[in-house]
Amino acid sequence: MKYFKFSYITILAFLSQILFGQTLSSNLSNTTLALGEVGEYKLKIDNLQGKEVVVAPKNELLPFHFEVVSDSISKQQNEYFRVVKFQIFDEGTFKIPALDIKIGDQIQKTIPYEIEVINTAKKDDVINDIMKNKQVDLGIKDYWELYKFYILAALVVIGIIFLIVYYIKYGRKVKGSPKVLTNQTLKDLDRLKKKNYIQNGNYRMYYVELIDITREFLTKQYKIPANVLLTDDLIDYMKTSNIISEQNEKIIEDIFQRGDLVKFAKTIPNSDMMEKDFNDIKTMVQRSTKDVEAEQLRTMN
């Protein structure tokens, strides 16, 4: 009686597993493949009963050496079916390990497989072309169509190199030439004149901007640190360096010293004096190219 009861329970459990449990199965098309031959790995779950299946994402089910060709997944209420087509391009034995598949709250494992990959080509095999090569005569137009992008690219590169060389050799010199700096400073002086500081009696701002323009010009044109030196130090520097002509040096000395007195409210110039100082600075700027040319000659000698 006890034996009958035990057998009855065992049969019920077995039937319950068949009727209500999930069946996991896997299949490998071949255990031996040639290099690059397409193999097929299938994964199937029956009696799914709508449960969630957690498995490796698409194209990531198989190990590293397996080059996936396609990975198709079909999931229905009672069935999960997946077919992975793959290739292997190295000789040797490769394993597909037992894969963990989570079905609902349970984890099931697949059967592991081993695949042997062999090179079917032999060293002495002769490879013959299906069709013999044909000799085709190409004209100038054909060559142009074949190589036009390379030719155009080469011309662009040559053009860029030419522009860079030209800029290095001539562009910087032109931009920083004495004549260009002179013209730029004359424009700055004209802008100062249009502010009408002289007519409005704003002598302090007038001398501040006039001297700032002159300092900037001396720094660039004569290559002396006029924008950082005090007036007395600048005058000493000009006299010892002999870069600036005595005539221009005298103009700078007089106007800079007068400008310092005006800025510190020690003297008040009249409009005639302000006009004269403006014209003298303008004349000095225009004559500066001769100073630069004389310095260049002195350096060469």
Give me the secondary-structure category. alpha+beta
Shape annotation: elongated
Low-confidence stretches are: 1-10, 12-19
Mean pLDDT: 82
Q: Sketch the major β-sheet.
A: 4 strands, antiparallel
First-last Cα distance = 131 Å
Across the major sheet, the strand order is 1-3-6-5
Percent of residues in helices: 40-55%
Number of helices: 8
Strand content: 15-25%
How many whole angstroms does the radius of gyration measure?
47 Å
Number of strands: 10
Which series of helices and strands comes N to C? Answer: HEEEEEEEEEEHHHHHHH
Quick structural gist:
Helix content is 51%, strand content 19%.
Explain the layout of strands and helices:
Blueprint: H1 2-20, E1 23-28, E2 32-34, E3 39-46, E4 53-54, E5 67-75, E6 79-87, E7 92-96, E8 100-103, E9 106-109, E10 113-118, H2 140-175, H3 178-193, H4 197-200, H5 203-221, H6 231-241, H7 246-263, H8 271-300
Parallel strand pairs: 2-10
Antiparallel strand pairs: 1-3, 3-6, 4-8, 5-6, 7-10, 8-9
List keywords for this structure.
301 residues, four-stranded antiparallel beta sheet, elongated, 51% helix, three-stranded mixed beta sheet, alpha+beta, 10 strands, 8 helices
Structure characterization notes:
This protein has 301 residues and is α+β, with helices and mostly antiparallel strands. The chain is built from 8 helices and 10 strands. The strands form 3 sheets. The protein has a 4-stranded antiparallel sheet with strand order 1-3-6-5, with no helix packed on it. The protein has a 3-stranded mixed sheet with strand order 2-10-7, with no helix packed on it. A hairpin with a 3-residue loop joins β5 (67-75) and β6 (79-87). The longest helix has 36 residues, at 140-175. The protein is elongated.
